[in-house]
Design goal:
Elements (H helix, E strand, L loop, with lengths): L15 H7 L16 H19 L5 H58 L9 H29 L8 H18 L13 H19 L4
Helix pairs in contact: 3-4, 3-6, 4-5, 5-6
């Protein structure tokens, strides 16, 4: 049996200077305690690191490494592709929602416009209803202007190449803007000599109905 080696004793100088560094002045009256990792925990960490290192070092060389690299690159490429497709899909969905909302708002304005414009052109001018006519005239021009603005917003969202199912509604909107002002706000509009016009009423109603039908295809 080998003789036991003499124990090595290390003395720590507990001078006031070191104590003042380790223990702040405010806590010098209390004992300084340092949390330490137990030997079992330390050994466990070392063992885990050794296992990881050993596993990495035992990876085979050559073709197998290339296969692993190819698998990693394929996984990364798939993840990027999935992200890209998902991103553009939701961008498209968001655009559809915005266009649908604009179409619904346009339909609401069309309903109000059709009602006011048909009432306005259904009667001849009567002096005692002057205030009513003034309100109707302002609403008619405001609705036409608002529909024009919605048309521009829809065109902006759809871009230069709208899908085939949206193009008919867009073309109907453009035709409406090009002709409706002259129909509803032309002739004797705002005139004290205004006469009722069944023809204008029919034109307004027909164009509004056609446009609402087209917009309903993109409003959901």
């Amino acid at each position: 049996m080998l003789p036991s080696e003499p124990a090595i004793i290390v003395e720590i100088d507990k001078s006031p200077i070191i104590e003042s560094v380790i223990c702040p002045a405010a806590t010098q009256t209390q004992s300084c305690q340092v949390d330490s990792i137990s030997n079992e925990q330390f050994e466990l960490v070392l063992t885990s690191l050794e296992n990881i290192s050993g596993g990495v070092n035992t990876l085979p060389n050559g073709i197998y490494n290339l296969e692993i690299m190819s698998a990693i690159l394929a996984a990364i490429s798939s993840a990027i592709a999935a992200f890209t497709i998902n991103y553009f899909y939701w961008k498209r969905v968001e655009k559809k929602k915005v266009v649908s909302k604009l179409a619904l708002e346009t339909i609401n304005v069309l309903n109000e416009f059709e009602d006011i414009a048909c009432k306005y052109w259904s009667v001849s001018y009567v002096t005692r209803h002057q205030r009513t006519y003034m309100i109707q005239e302002n609403k008619i021009t405001s609705c036409i202007s608002l529909i024009y603005q919605y048309t521009k917003e829809i065109e902006k969202k759809l871009g230069k190449t709208p899908s085939p199912n949206i193009e008919p509604a867009l073309q109907e909107l453009r035709n409406f803007n090009n002709t409706m002002y002259e129909i509803a706000a032309g002739g004797d509009f705002k005139s004290k000599t205004k006469e009722k016009s069944p023809k204008k009423v029919s034109q307004i109603s027909k164009k509004c109905t056609n446009l609402k039908a087209k917009l309903s295809s993109i409003a959901y």
